[in-house]
Amino acid sequence: MNASKFLVIAAVVSMPAATFAAGADGHGHGMASGEPGKASQASRTINVEMYDNYYEPEMIDVEPGETVRFVVENKGNLVHEFNIGTPGMHDAHQKEMKMMVEHGVIQGGQIHHDMMNMDMGNGHSMKHDDPNSVLLEPGESQEVVWTFSDKGNVEFACNVPGHYQAGMYGEINLK
Amino acid sequence: MKVRLLTGLLSLLMPALVLAGEYNLTVDRVEIDTGDFVKEGIGYNGKSPGPVLRFKEGEDVRINVTNNLDEATSIHWHGLILPFEQDGVPGISFPGIQPGETFTYEFPITQAGTYWFHSHSGFQEPDGAFGAIVIEPEGREPFRYDREYVIQLTDKHPHSGDRIMRNLKMMPDYYNRQQQTVGEFFSDASSNGLMDTIQDRMAWGDMRMMKADVEDVQGFTGMINGKGPAQNWTGLFEPGERVRLRFINSSAMTYFDVRIPGLDMTVVQADGNNIQPVNVDEFRIGVAETYDVIVHPKDERAHTIFAESMGRSGYARATLAPEEGMEAPVPPMRDPARLTMADMAGMPGMDHGDMDHSSMENMDDSNMQDMDHGSMDGMDHSKMGGDDGQPSDPFYAKGSGIMPVAANDGKFLSYADLKAQKPLYEEREPTREIELRLTGNMERYTWSINGVKYEDADPIRLQYGERVRFKFVNETMMTHPMHLHGMWSILDVGAGKWNPIKHTVSVQPGTTVYMETEVDAPGQWAFHCHLSYHAAAGMFRKVIVEGGPDSTQAKTDVAIEEGGDA
What we know:
A: alpha+beta; Immunoglobulin-like; B: mainly beta; six-stranded mixed β-sheet; copper ion binding (chain A); copper (chain A); metal-binding (chain A); Cu-binding_ET (chain A)
């Protein structure tokens, strides 16, 4: 990485107060969408496949308070995200993802991890490491274990620019 | 309009059977009412625009076209990949359809997306002979929406196409109403200095052009789905729904800048092919192009679909609303764009040889000033592309006066944003490059390729199986939407394997644009500027694909040449 590019990114990243992940609201204490769960508490495993640009399945029923282990696989040719949150959280996160694309961290089917992990000073980075989401290159697979809250308007979504708007989201139905 | 041979139920019961559909179109004299004027035109099934033809990928279609006119006609299926005899260009694909005759087109549908159809005979298309094609994919769409609308734009002119062409030939600026005025001369003189202004005007005069040549046929009423601005075509939605809008520009001559104030648009398809989604505030749609966008209106309120012509000489307007009769404000048109010297940069071939270099440099200066205060009135000058790192579009000449800027200073779609969602072809080195200079002489209203007009030109010969790189060099001051029939145009946006495939590629003044074509369709094809009067004036070529499967080659040899319409 050359120095001028580093400076541009550093300038951009010095603005947000948190790492580049699930949006500003709620780290740790009772998000509207739920909280990270332990795999040992999961009542079941749901496989989610990501394609260009949609999920299978697109609708998931969960019990209030249920802990679910999601096994997420990117079967497309582009980078995709699986992110559990409210529409407002997704909206906030999309602005961060847009920056990542504009600065070349995500390009088509590639994630440039070296750029994400770079220390930007003041503890900031472009890491994408919040427990409610995974960001995957084509062919990759990862898990998200999530304990849903009792209520709330919750979706899973891909916040790579344009993907959510084009329809890459799915409904979580709390029964 | 259409009769499905197999019902949905039957095709479910017998999945092994090929899906086949039969469709009937009549070509008729029709009345067209724009709200501003009523004129006689040509339409399909009694209307202009004609019906939306809905096909399914994998279907074999039979389309019976009955010519009720007293002149020959034809239908070209714009953007569809099909055998060349079905492509509908008189003199190249077939002899045309004579008065009273019914011609049956038969071809397989091998693609999905938004396309259109139009007459390829004389000026029937500007006179109203066009309709839309929507092809549902075999698998699922790679996006989600709750409802969809075709948004078919046109530039309806009170004069017939024949009359417009006669007038342009007689006086090329006949329809150019935005010529610079004496008043403008004095206002330029006061801000730029008298000598600079005189020099600027003289230089442009030497080039036999005017800065207002962005649109050479003005005086039209913009229409959407057959409705003028006052007639306000309206599409309904329930708040919270996602709506897919299939924009098709069926204009004879007019580029439109499209926005929907209050709604973000996500472009998901260009020229029928899925692209990686791009969020935009506004986009420019070239003549013959299509763009599919998804919008997500959340509130119980109406939104105006506003499409200003690139030269700001007219607009089309429609409405998205929760209820019939609701409407939103219609914004005023922005000030007209003016060409700058940057837009002329690629013009060595034009006959303005008596212009010397010192005056060129002077012009450059005065002209840049002119652009700032003239065409960009009231705008933040720093938004103009250029050296200052502000938005610029690599598909426009640097410092171009016609580079689009979003009305809300937001994101304006560029060709550079178009990336294939799922590349159709493997990336490989082209086998050779063919340079096509787009040329013309505005004073005589002649338009040509490499300085030679269609009737004097040899066909372009391609070999089946090769990959040709076309280099378009625009040496004119107008934008040309170049349309190759029968094979995809892989537009070089610098994205390598993600370069998008299109059927129509706009080449801006003073720019060079590259596209590549996998020569995979035997036969002979049309290749032309899709501005109706430019194509008719000679910016047109026949392409012959030599070789290929034996059976097709034999048919090419006996292809009927008759008519000569383009």
